[in-house]
Amino acid sequence: MAEAAAERGATEAPVRRLLVVDDDPVSNRLMQRRLERLGYEVFSAADGREALESLPDLRPDVLLLDVSMPGVGGLDVLEHVRESGLDAAVIMMTAYGTEEVAVESLRRGADDYLRKPLQQAEFEAVLERTVERLRLERQNRALRRQLDEKRRQLEAELSRAARVQAELLPVGTPEVPGFELAARCIPAREIGGDFYGWMRPDPQTLALTLGDVMGKGMPAALLMATARAVLRALSRQNPPERAVNLAARALEEDLMRSGSFVTLFHAQLDIPSGSLSYVDAGHGHAFVRRAGGSVEHLLEGGVPVGTIPGHAYREGRLRLEPGDTLVAYSDGLAEARPGSLMAVGEIAGSLSGASGAREMLERLVGLAGAGESLSDDLTVLVLHRAGEG
């Protein structure tokens, strides 16, 4: 309640203090009385110089300025008000009634003008629309300040979230005898829904994961962190098929309720033999490039996690021989070119002649033009078995 009242107060800008500037004492006093009857707090100045001296302390909401005054005229006061940035509306008053005077006043920043002798109906109409315009301008400025502050807060929160998300990704790569490992994740926004990870459940085993949560930004990032944590915990003591099936059961309710889903490529490598078991849960972006340059598609797959409750995931197997490379990537690479999908053959062909996993990774990231603005999160993981290339 108190917070809502404070927000309303921040956008309400009452217009109450009026300054009448007229060197004709009769006109000045008449104007004051009219304004006081309308409920305003009214002050007066006998000429332009007195008005200028009173502005810093008085800070009126609206000035009613006579154009023709000896010494400092109404247009001079108007010019000072606009140059000083005073938050006030200005209504000019002229006894001449010429269009030239009115146009010049408006050109110099007046909000409106009145002709003398003042007609009550015209006077009230001009004052009402000027006051309303000033009130709305102040309200809009207050709202813009609130929006700017909320934007700054959101940017700060996003920056903190990006740091947290970056810290969830692996720091460095593990030493895997006979293999070289490299990966990178580049969010399309400050934070995203892609993730990758690896772990050594035991000295003979390496577990690898690459996932992509539907969507971008904060919602995808929150689901990403949950999916990553669940799968990581289950991968310590379970082979890929069991780990993914258990993770899917654990995540289904949250994903179905949020209307989202996760694609996963999860694999486990037996380091001494090069045998790789894997589950592809609707991901579809993984292949093996053999030492001779041929490409092997990973056929064993399933649906994304969160789309079909109770779906059973099955495990596929292959062997990485010396010189072979496993590549897994998110659709940020496949869809890097607007209007078309990048073919696996082209992606695999870009690796020809590369000396190891790190060079392969740089080439793949380069295909997506990662130095430019990405339309989707980009994640690439490369596992290369040493040997002839």
Automatic annotation (TrEMBL):
Q: Is the keyword Coiled coil in the record?
A: yes
UniProt protein name = Response regulator receiver modulated serine phosphatase
Q: Which residues form a coiled coil?
A: 133-167
Q: Which organism is it from?
A: Rubrobacter xylanophilus (strain DSM 9941 / JCM 11954 / NBRC 16129 / PRD-1)
GO MF terms, alphabetically ordered:
phosphatase activity
Q: Which SUPFAM superfamilies match?
A: CheY-like, PP2C-like
Q: Which PROSITE patterns match?
A: RESPONSE_REGULATORY
Q: Which residues carry this modification: 4-aspartylphosphate?
A: D66
Response regulatory domain: residues covered: 17-131
- InterPro entries xref list: Bact_Sigma-Reg (IPR052016), CheY-like_superfamily (IPR011006), PPM-type-like_dom_sf (IPR036457), PPM-type_phosphatase-like_dom (IPR001932), Sig_transdc_resp-reg_receiver (IPR001789)
- Please list the GO biological process terms of this entry: phosphorelay signal transduction system
**Keywords in alphabetical order:** Coiled coil, Hydrolase, Phosphoprotein
